[in-house]
Amino acid sequence: MKNTEYRHIGSALHQLLGELKISNRVHEQKVLETFEKIMGEAFCRRAKAVKIEHGSLFIEVISSVWRQELFYQKLTIRDRINSELKENIVKEIIFR
User: Fold this and answer.
1) What does the pLDDT read at residue 15?
2) Which residues pair with 49 in a beta bridge?
3) pTM recorded for the entire structure
């Protein structure tokens, strides 16, 4: 009889993602999926997370005035996202 080791599906999946070297992409996708919930509907009427690559979150903003205002809140936004997700996923924010 074969020696079979049982594991929780979550830990097996986490190990598989690490071996495939895509766990970072999965975590980054989580930022895009939860952005509106984290930042709120009012914020997202003026700014939308469009993509994230290698820890850089790209946010599309409706106007240059709003972009300038958000620039001063960059660290607060980054910290809020990372804190909510309990991971240091977002390293930089780029406004467009």
Assistant:
1) 72
2) 59
3) 0.76
